[in-house]
Each structure stands twice: as C-alpha cells, then as structure tokens.
Amino acid sequence: MKKLNYLLERRYDMRNFLGLLTVVFLAFGCSSSSNSNLERSIPGPTSREAFSAISAGISDQGLSGDKKDKGKKDKGKKDKGKKKTGSQLLKRAAGFAIFAASTITNTGPSVVNGDIGLTTGSSVTGFPPGTLNGTLHINDAAATNAKLDLQAAYNDLAGRPCNTVAPDLNSTLTPGVYCFSSSAQLNTALVLNGQGNPNALFIFQIGSTLTTASNSSVTLTNGASASNVFWQVGSSATLGTNTVFQGTIIAYSSVTLNTGSKITNGRAMALNGGVTLDNNIVTKP
Fold first, then answer.
1. Alpha carbon 124 to chain centroid distance?
2. How crowded is residue 28: how many other Cβ atoms within 10 Å of its Cβ?
3. What is the tens place of the pLDDT at every residue in 127-142?
4. Are 163 and 178 in contact, with CB atoms under 8 Å apart?
5. pTM of this prediction?
6. Where are the domains of the chain?
7. Of all residues in the chain, what percent carry a pLDDT higher than 90?
8. CA-to-CA distance for 125 and 17, rounded, in angstroms?
9. How far apart are CA 255 and CA 98, in angstroms?
C-alpha cells in the first residue's frame, strides 16, 4: 500500500512539472513569434522602445556634455583674448581718485571724490583745507594691492598696438590707441566721440610728458565714457590753469594739477613720484 501511494505522488509531481514546462515553452514561443502583437497589447513603452529611448538619451547627454564643454572652452578663449577696460583693467586701483608713490601735496580747498592712496611714501599734506570724500590709504594693504594693479595696468596700456601716431589733440577723435614718441600737448579742446558705444576705448600712449594749456578741455560725446579713457605717460603730466580734463592719468613719474584745473571724471596717478594739487577738483569715474 505504501509503495502504491508513493508511485501515485510521484506521478502527480511529474504531471505538475510537465504542465509547468508546457506553460514556459508556450510563453517563450508567443514572445518570439508574436512580439509585435505583444508590444501593441502592452501599455507604455515596449522593451525595444525603452532600449531605443535609453540609447538616444545616453547619446544626447553625451553630445550635450560635449557641447557644454566646448562652449566653456570657447568662452574661455574669448575671455582670454578680450582686452579689459575701465575698472576691469585697474582692478583694485579703480576706487582711487589720487594715487602716488612718494608724496601727495595739496594747497587750498581742493576736493577729491574718491580714495587717496600712497605707498611707499608717508607724506600726505593739505587735507584740510582740502576735502576728501573717500578713504585715505597710506602703506596699508589696500594701497599695496592698488600699486600692484596700477603697475600692471600701466604695462598693459603701454603694450597695446598703436592705431594712430601723433594725432592732433586739438580735434575730434574716435576710439583707438594713439601714440606719441615723446611729448603730447593739448592747447585748446579735445573731443572724444564714442560713436554710440559706451565701451569705446581711448588710449593715449605718451613717451615722455603730457601738458595742457590754460583753459583747455577734454569733452566726451556720443556715448563715450570717462572710465574708458586712459593717458599712459612715460614721465610726468601737468594740467594747466583751469584745464577741464577727463580720463585716468597714469604717469610713470609725477602728476601736477595747476591752480583751478579739474579732472571732472578721471584720476591722477603717479607710479614712482608724487601728485601735487592746487585748488582742484578730482572725481573718479
């Protein structure tokens, strides 16, 4: 009797196994022979579509990454080749209206709108009666850093290719780099025409001295900005009585402002010498 029961159980297990095996073969056969029908009957993406979408996504992501990387590289190249202007060029020296290396001397009720910096000298005299609407920096970190950036700006300006040699300063000039092998003289009026471009750059490279006659002037028109006007002077700059001037003067040696002269938008900066004021107004751009 036990043996008979055992054989019956074995027969039942075998029947279940064969049934399960049949289901597996049927399912596999249907999947391989009627794949298109199955894909139409199942909602959402099929395995084939999902694989295509994933592949496309990976490809797009790779291309997108490549484009972004290429864009960053291209932007880096453009930024590297782009010439800096205004406060970008001056960097930490941009906040100063007056800067000198040896001394800063003032006579009378001058007004300075912006910071005053001095390094490595220690003598700043004449405030008061002069008025400083800014901060005085003498041999501190701000002055030291400004001196480094000012020297770099001077070298940058001096090294740019010249567009016009010895232009007539008593005329109207458009954006460009103007160079003088020795001295430059402003006798009457200089007009700088920005041609509608607020980023228009005017650079004057002067080998030795810059001088202006009494009552001479520099005027900006048609969008020109004083923050983009630079006077790089090889030795010293002297503004005559009652001159109305604009732009940043960076002199290798010294800057002197005679009685009543004004830098309405600009700076007086001396890399190795002093700055002398006499009843002047200096306002940084």
1. 33
2. 10
3. 999 999 999 999 999 9
4. yes
5. 0.73
6. 88-283
7. 69
8. 108
9. 10
